[in-house]
Amino acid sequence: MDKKLIKKLQRICGRENVFSRSLDLLLYSYDASMEKGSADVVVLPQTVSQIQELVRLAVAERIPVIARGSATNLSGGTIAPQGGMVIACTRMNRILEINTEDQIALVEPGVFNLDLQKALAEKGYFFAPDPASQKVSTLAGNAAMNAGGPHCLKYGVTVNHVTGLDFIGADGELYSIGGRTALTPGYDLTGIMNGSEGTFAIITRLVLRIMPLPEAVSTMLVSFADIDSAANAVSAIIARGIIPATLEFMDNLCIRTVVQSLQVDYPVDAAAVLIIEIDGPELSLASQNQEITAICRQHGASDVRLAKDEAERTALWAGRRGALGAMTRLKPSLVVFDGTVPRNRLPEALRTIHTICHELNIQYGTLLHAGDGNIHPILVYDERDADETARIRTGCEQIMKTCVDLGGTITGEHGVGMEKMAAMTLLFSPRDLEAMRKLKHVFDPENILNPGKIFPQLRVDFCL
Amino acid sequence: MLDNTYDKVISCSKCGFCQPTCPTYLVSGLEHEVARGRHQLVRAQAEGRVAMNKDIKDTLFQCLMCNACYSNCFPRIKTDEVIARARYDYITRYGQPQLQRYIFHYLLRHPEVLSRLLKLAAPVKNSGLSGLAQALRILGWFGKNLATAEQLLEKIPRKSLRELAAMRNWQPRKTRGKVAYFVGCGINFAQPEVGLATLELLTLRGFAVEILPNFCCGLPAYAYGDLDSVRWFAQQNSELLLATDADYIITDCGSCTSFLKEYHRFCDDPVQSERLQPILNKIVDLTHWLADTMDWANYKDDRQPYRVTWHDPCHLAHHLHEKASSRAVMRNIPNVSYTELPEADMCCGGAGSYNIAHSDISKKILARKLTNVVSANADILATACPACIMQLAWGVRQNGMPVRVMHLNQLVLENTVRD
After folding, report:
1. pLDDT in tens, A406-417
2. Beta strands per DSSP E along A44-99
3. Is A184 within 8 Å of chain B by CB?
4. Fewest Cβ atoms closer than 10 Å to its Cβ: which of A181, A194, A271, A338?
5. Are B29 and A110 within 8 A, CB to CB?
6. Do the Cβ atoms of A133 and B15 come within 8 Å?
7. What is the pLDDT, as a whole number, of residue B1?
8. Do A190 and A119 sit in the same domain of this protein?
9. Domain termination residue (choose one: A88, A119, A135)
10. What is the dihedral of CA B30, B33, B34, B35, to 10 degrees?
11. Per-residue model confidence as pLDDT tens digits over A161-185
12. What is the pLDDT of residues B333-348, one digit of tens each?
């Protein structure tokens, strides 16, 4: 990168916060997805005004700007495919305010989700979005990707829990939208920022809606001897009018792998397990538990185990949250998809995925946020094996197509990023996409902010 | 790479879950300073995707090797093993700094010389270390780190633990068994009072003690990537471990304990490696032994309990996964009211001589630790590693905090009835 430009960046952020050696760029060329791409410079600002100056400079120089937090996203959202400047907000990680009267928390972009949860728990509150990466993913990242998580079945995804945002627009100006109340007049700009994947603006501060912790929580692990029964039980529970806080599914390979990795007490011979959590007033739980147990038994559950205490509950969740990472024990790389299908099509979706992976000789395990039909097939491979990698690409393409054919979508929560750009055409007509492009143009006419994401690019190969 | 380091780093899935556990990441926010980044660098290096030059030095050498990342690592990569190997490759390529070469290849292999030199330096300690360094004619090698080193070491004891221990006979009145005591360098040369407390406790609880004439455990050399020296130390000490007929081999330095237990990794001879296995299982950290023999303790119960908190040495918490024993021991002492330290198992920034080599980062990590110590509001901060004690005591001194930093065994001994 041009030395003069580096000098200017150093003047804004300080010498020690600007990185442009080849080593630096290598270390910022990946995230948790399959994608790779090297920026030209990485900067770590510490104040909002520094971000503002950085964006102004980028606009003047016409270089792409990619906002980045913990870079744990699974779709390539923080990769710099067209070079440019990565703005890493990892040093802006203060919780500025927790206000239980207004039920809001005010945070900087780089706060880990779990750090906020811990601070809130001390006051008897929680922030509902709880992606499996919550230990490490940042709140601005959660908002930018409109992250989900197990508890989103009952409480909704990130967009439902952000009431206000400060951001630096592509014109280099600071905007403050939404606020401390849930209802604001006019267009819902806060809403539209969620899930915009850094293509509209750089988020610099978030106002988050927090909620009182439920009075009681009860978690159970239900084992099934076959996958269809487990999937049917899911539909039956929801059809009965019960909305659990979470309704998670793990298949046998995931169970066995996580047991090896974490020494959790899961039934290794079950074809699938459901992790069902309900919360609410203490008195309501017992009858709901009975009802859920009965439904599961009717659908052939072989074992229903209720966590006796907080320790057992934590252990159950450790297995679920660790499942994705544990799969890397099988092969060095993995890709996880997050297509969504209508709940009653789950058995069909799972069968088709099985056929696809079987035919392509791909090893895979399946996790589901089953309650909202969000499927997470985890495909493991070795990226040094070109043939296997190509089969993985094909498999992903076919899985996404399956989801769309069954009336679902290509992504439930991980975002489009680079990974699913091409697949957008499966879901949206050229006219739909044009409407989105127009919106992008309003916020970022020069296409400076996170270019090369979301929209299908002119690429010969498929999305991966 | 000759060993399986490459297989380890390719299994990093780049999930990034190491970030909230990594002390150097938490103070820097940099991908360079977290296990994921380090693994990717080592991998890229092996695959020839990154230029071989000295740019990689900071990323490799600023890792604390605390292994806190391991607790969050699904593929279970031991980052310290990756880093030690990468540092070995680095010093093989770019040369080992003179001071390290002198320490690992000469001084620590001739502890009698080190002992003599420290004796020369001790009387001059107001300015102890510069006196020592002058005596060793290595002042120039220390460079700007000398001032830091000097602050950390409050005093140089006039007599080493070995000399002090030789003045007494460590025989219990009634013998329950025999232990061999492995003398760590930090205890021997800097904190002999800790070693004496260990010896007293072992005797009080009925064990005859054999003090092993051991060399350094080799961990300092490992930390600087001098794997050839590690082999030498491991070989020498393994002979001693194989020779002893003691029921247990005990150390009061968590770092020594965990490293001794890894000796099989540095043994090239498969026959000896096999002979070593059962012996390595006999190595027990004092903390663990104190918990095991708790029933034989006779504790005082004679005062308003002091508030005690605990800092987990990384080698106990993240290498040996031993966190329960110390807490059990403290909760069992009537004069102790135990409070859990927030982030108790996060590195203090001491990490052997990391605090000298990378004092800027080390101080930031220490500041976080001290903030937590303040919030725990304790009278005593106990731990079980001489390097942690040195680092924490320095931090406490610098900030005028009303906290006593001590080894767990000193706390135990202070509260034991001696008949």
Report:
1. 999 999 889 999
2. 65-68, 85-88, 95-99
3. no
4. A181
5. yes
6. yes
7. 42
8. yes
9. A88
10. 150
11. 999 999 999 999 999 999 888 778 8
12. 999 999 999 999 999 9
Structural domain total, chain A: 3
CA distances for A294 relative to A284, A297, A300, A319, angstroms: 16, 5, 10, 24
- Whether B387 and B255 have beta carbons less than 8 Å apart is answered as yes
Query: What domains can you pick out in chain B, each with its CATH number?
Result: 5-94 (1.10.1060.10), 98-152 (no CATH), 161-290 (1.20.1050.140), 296-414 (3.40.50)
Instruction: Give, as one character, the DSSP assignment of residue A213.
Output: P
Residue A320 and residue B225: Cα distance in Å, rounded?
Answer: 38
Residues of chain A with C-beta less than 8 angstroms from the C-beta of B20: 112, 114-115, 135-136
A99-152 pLDDT, tens digit per residue, is 999 999 999 999 999 999 999 999 999 999 999 889 999 999 999 999 998 888
Q: At what angle do helices A252-262 and A310-326 cross, to 10 degrees?
A: 110
Residue A430 lies in a domain: no
A120 vs A99: CA distance, rounded Å = 10
Q: Would you state the structure tokens that stand for residue B414, as one six-digit string?
A: 């202070």
Asked if A382 and A388 touch (Cβ cutoff 8 Å), the reply is yes
- Phi and psi for B228 in degrees, rounded to 5? -65, -45
Q: Please identify, among A286, A318, A350, the residue that sits at the C-terminal boundary of a domain.
A: A318
Q: Are A65 and A137 in the same domain?
A: no
Taking the CA of residue B348 and the nearest CA in chain A, the distance in Å comes to 20
- CA atoms of A83 and B418, how far apart (whole Å): 71
Is residue A147 one of the residues assigned to a domain?
A: yes
CATH number of the domain where residue A282 is located: 3.30.70.2190
Same domain, yes or no, for A101 and A83? Answer: no
Q: Which of A24, A44, A328 sits opposite B74 (nearest CB)?
A: A328
Q: Give, in order, the Cα–Cα distances in Å from A308 to each of A217, A222, A266, A276, A297.
A: 11, 14, 15, 14, 20
Co-location of A99 and A176 in the same domain? yes
* Interface check A14 vs B, CB under 8 A: no
Q: What is the pLDDT of residue A125?
A: 97
Mark whether A65 and A105 lie in a shared domain. no
Whether residue A186 has pLDDT greater than 80: yes
Indicate the residue of B31, B44, B75 with minimum beta-carbon distance to A329: B75
Local structure of A174: helix, strand or coil: strand
Asked, for residue A61, whether it belongs to a domain, the answer is: yes
pLDDT band at A426 (very low <50, low <70, confident <90, very high): very high
Beta carbons of B16 and A31 less than 8 Å apart: yes
**Exposed e or buried b for every residue in B39-67, given b needs 16+ CB within 10 A?**
bbbbbbbbeeebeeeebbeebbbbbbbbb
A156 and A139 fall within a common domain: yes
What tokens appear for B359 in the block? 């004092």
Q: Which candidate, A5, A85, A96, places its Cα nearest to that of A37? A: A85
3-state secondary structure of A391: helix
**In terms of Cα–Cα distance, which of A464, A350, A461, A366 is closest to A416?**
A464
- Contact call for A32 and B13, based on CB within 8 A: yes
Q: How confident is the model at residue A99, as a pLDDT?
A: 97
Verify that A120 and A27 share a domain, yes or no: no
Name the nearest CA neighbour of A247 among A376, A153, A350: A153
For residue A69, give its domain range. Answer: 3-88
CA A301 to chain centre: 30
* Amino acid in the structure at residue B336: V
Regarding whether A223 and A162 lie in a shared domain, the answer is: no
β-bridge mates for residue A36, sequence order = A30
Residue A232, helix vs strand vs coil? helix
State the complex-level ipTM. 0.92
Chain B residue at shortest CA distance from A24: B32
Given a cut of 70, whether residue B102 has pLDDT beyond it is yes
- Which residues from chain B sit within 8 angstroms of residue A140, using beta carbons? none
* CATH number of the domain where residue A207 is located: 3.30.465.10
